[in-house]
Amino acid sequence: MRFLHEKAILVCVVLVTAVGGWYLWNMQSYRGAQSDENRPIAEVSYQCDGGKTIQAAYYAGETKPAAAPGQPPTPGGSVALRLSDGRTLDLYQTISADGARYSDGNPSVQGSESIVFWSKGNGAMVLEHNTDLTYSGCVKIAPNPGDLPLIYTNGADGFSIRYPADYTLDSAYSYQALGPGKDIAGVKFTIPESFAKGTNLSDDTYLSVEEIPQAKQCTADLFMYAGALRGHAPVTLADGDTTYSVASSTDAAVGNRYEETLYAIPGSNPCIAVRYFIHYGVLENYPPGMVTAFDHAALTKQFDEMRRTLVLN
To answer: Which of 140, 163, 182 is at the close of a domain?
Structure first.
């Protein structure tokens, strides 16, 4: 009898453990499913004209049937916005012929919408009361890889890029080495003097983002003077999600070396390219012990990090 009693107790313990485990597993699965439903499909930061910003969390939803025959179905997505003026908004996706459109009302009912958020590609805008474009020129910004806290945004040309805090920004820069009347407009980020101090690197070294309008094909050689490639055609380079047309050259003059590497983005319009301009002196021309060789790999790595944060709209 004692044996049967102990066996019965053991069976009960096993059953309770199994049922408890099944319950916990199902609750965890349920909570996981619930959290997946409430998790945004994308979270995007936008920098806009006038220093304004938008934080957007996009959510998926079930598409609703068309309201009438021949009409497109209504999307079921939504977006949660946090604007730099302090407002937080929850808007629902509406029918749009171009891009993704979200509003706080019914677009088919006149006067019911007070705010509309529109996103397309890597750009966005906010329209209020159907007339006031309160957030314009908004471009997506890439996450900070670690040491690029500052952001430059060009809403008119539709791009953004991150850069280090100690770099000098020149938004009125133009590349003039192609000759009279062939200047290339852009924005330049020059290294700090501290980067070059005590080395053979010149402090006019920089990274720039440049553009050529109405180019039939966007290739790196468009940004270089005739003969710079010395018969070598640009090469194609895939880096992450971006494919580049890449070309480079090295020039020498009176003990100086000038390295230039161009990363053009085929298909961009205007044609956009990132230029690395590295100027340094021949080490042997300095008195012994006066300077040390600059860290070429470290400089190139930082330029690479900046280039990879370039976002085109």
So the answer is: 140
3-state DSSP assignment of residue 284: helix
The span from the CA of 174 to the CA of 206, in Å, is 13
> In whole angstroms, what is the distance from residue 22 CA to residue 258 CA?
69
Domain hosting 83: range is: 42-140
Residue at token pair 């042997």: 284
Tokens of 251: 């020039």
In terms of domains, do 49 and 192 share one?
no
* For the chain, counts of helices (H) and of strands (E): 3, 19
Domain's final residue, options 98, 114, 140: 140
Whether residues 160 and 283 share a domain: the answer is: yes
What amino acid is encoded at 58 in this protein?
Y
3 in a structural domain: no
215-238: pLDDT as tens digits = 999 999 999 987 777 767 899 999
**Residues in contact with 75: Cβ distance below 8 Å, sequence separation at least 6, in sequence order:** 61, 63, 64, 93, 94, 95, 100
CATH code of the domain in which 268 resides:
2.60.120.1690
Judge if 114 and 175 occupy the same domain. Answer: no
Within this chain, do residues 183 and 306 fall inside the same structural domain, yes or no? yes
Element (H, E) at 236: strand 235-239
Q: Please, which residues have CB within 8 angstroms of residue 245's CB and are 6 or more apart in sequence?
A: 218, 219, 220, 221, 234, 235, 236, 237, 262, 263, 264, 265, 266
Structure tokens at 92: 């629902």
What are the tens digits of pLDDT across the range 235-268? 999 999 999 999 999 999 889 999 999 999 999 9
Q: Reduced to 3 states, what is the DSSP secondary structure of residue 221?
A: helix
Question: Could you give the CA distance from residue 65 to residue 46 in angstroms, rounded to a whole number?
Answer: 32
